[in-house]
Amino acid sequence: MSDLQTPEGGTPLAGPDPVYLQDPVLDATVRMVVELAAQVWVERERRITLETVLESRGLLTREQLEAFKPTSAQAAALKEERNRFIEDVFKELRRIPVRQS
Amino acid sequence: MSSQPETMPALAQRADASYLDFVEGFREYILGKGADFEDRLNEELLAEERRRGKKWQELEEIRAHVHGLPLGRLRDRLARTQQEMKWHTLKRSFEAQRQSLTSQLAHWDTRGPGRLELDRQFVYPPYVNVHFHLQPAGYYKDELSGYLYHYGTKVFFRGDNDHDELHAKLVARVPAPADGRVERILDLACSIGQSSTAFKRRFPSAEVTGVDYSTPMLRVAHRRAAMLGDDVTFAQRLVEDTGYANGHFDITFAFIVFHELPLRIIHETVCEAARVTRKGGIFAIYDFIGTRDKSPFQRYHRWFDARHNGEPYSQDFCDCNLENILAKNGFKVAAAPVGQRSGGAGYMSNWFATRE
User: Residue A11 domain-assigned?
Assistant: First the structure.
């Protein structure tokens, strides 16, 4: 994809789908992994929400689920869980050496 | 928890909120200590300096070295990906409720407190035709651009500004003029008006005006301020040609504005700020630190952000000498670096300039 140049100059902008990893397949694979992680998180968040609602109210409706607002403590616990999840999936990043031996 | 009305636009469904919450956490992870890209790559750049026995000079040398590292390329891939994920989901979520969101804007356009002054004859200058930060349709081409910006920057600031905390903190830091007189305040390129309302709260008796070129941003700014009960005027004007009288303002403020302006407009904007700020008044700026103060990795990141995150003018801004431009236009300048945070505040600085 060709560069985009503003009428006032500046740094040329990359096109809509730049390749960073020298192989578009690899770029796509990374994007898919991250997307998969996001989707897994969405599902996990939903389940946690569902469980919380069920536990606290003893019943479930779609409206209740959509309207659920965590307390400060619940939100903090959710954030902690989110960070743990991210660490589980992406800790491999730290294993990549800065330089190839 | 704040008791203020929620001005952040609601998302179409719960799943959108949790998806964006993931993006926010992932962004923190790859920019901060989680993946620890920045410190590790910067250490490698410094080690390479030692191996070569000379400091990095040209940006091209740094770029070539980072691109030769698998870790550097992967970091770039992930940095770009998280931005694309954010905008994709935000756009879809707001698109699903376009009608109700535009109705909300129309509802508030003519209600106070505060006033919305749109210029029906306004012509957008060519330099603003950029999709800054990859935001779909940029800052002004979609009626919902202001809403996209509001939620998009919430994710960008990684939890530091969910309820405008960053704006309140930066506004609190701005020194009042030495004579203590603060009757009129100008917020340049105010976007959705978070600094403008923070100024109104700090100086309740002052007349606060936010100017911006973008109709969608100004409409969201007015809606937000009115919902909060803050009496602020939002006007559609260019930062380099505001049209206000000479010496009209006691404080002029520019929050992360200059790096989104071409060098020519940076000079014109400082000149305009000098014209509208009264003698003894303050021109306060918060923006990226200059190239000379950057670590080797920060120099690389500036280029990456410029090219791959829709910030085409930012490199020229960082390369220019803002202190000299301010001094040349009659300002006495004090610059104050902001505390470190990977990928965030460590890249930022305050300039507090007094009009002489």
Answer: no
**Residue A3: inside a domain:** no
Residue B254, SS3 per DSSP: strand
**Residue B73: is its pLDDT beyond 70?**
yes
ipTM above 0.95, yes or no: no
Three-class SS state of A51:
helix
**Domain residue ranges in chain B:** 1-356
Cβ separation of A18 and B308 shorter than 8 Å? Answer: yes
- The pLDDT assigned to A36 comes to 86
- Condensed to tens digits (0 to 9), the pLDDT of residues B10-37 reads 999 998 999 999 999 999 999 988 999 9
- pLDDT higher than 60, residue A23: yes
A81 in B contact zone (CB under 8 Å): no
**Closest CA relative to residue B21, chosen from A45, A89, A70:** A45
Distance from CA of A51 to the nearest CA of B (A): 15
Please name the residue of chain A whose CA is at the shortest distance from the CA of residue B65: A99
Top-tier CATH class for B1-356: alpha beta
Mean pLDDT calculated for residue range B185-209: 98
- In total, how many domains does chain A have? 1
Residues in B closer than 8 angstroms to A39, CB to CB, are: 19
Q: Is-contact B342 B32, C-beta < 8 A?
A: yes
For residue B236, report the phi and psi dihedrals to the nearest 5 degrees: -85, 100
Q: Do B22 and A68 touch (CB under 8 A)?
A: no
Confidence class for position A1, pLDDT limits 50, 70, 90? very low
b/e map B241-266, b = 16+ CB within 10 Å: ebebeebbbbbbbbbbbbbbbbbebb
| Cα B136 from Cα B335, distance rounded (Å) | 34
Q: Which domain holds residue A41?
A: 16-95
* Shortest Cα distance, chain A CAs vs residue B257, angstroms: 16
- Whether A46 has its CB under 8 Å from any CB of chain B: the answer is yes
Q: Does A10 reside within a domain?
A: no
Residue A20 lies in a domain: yes
Question: A53 contacts in B (CB within 8 Å)?
Answer: none
Please name every residue paired with B332 in a beta bridge, in sequence order, or none if there are none.
B354
End-to-end CA distance of chain A: 32
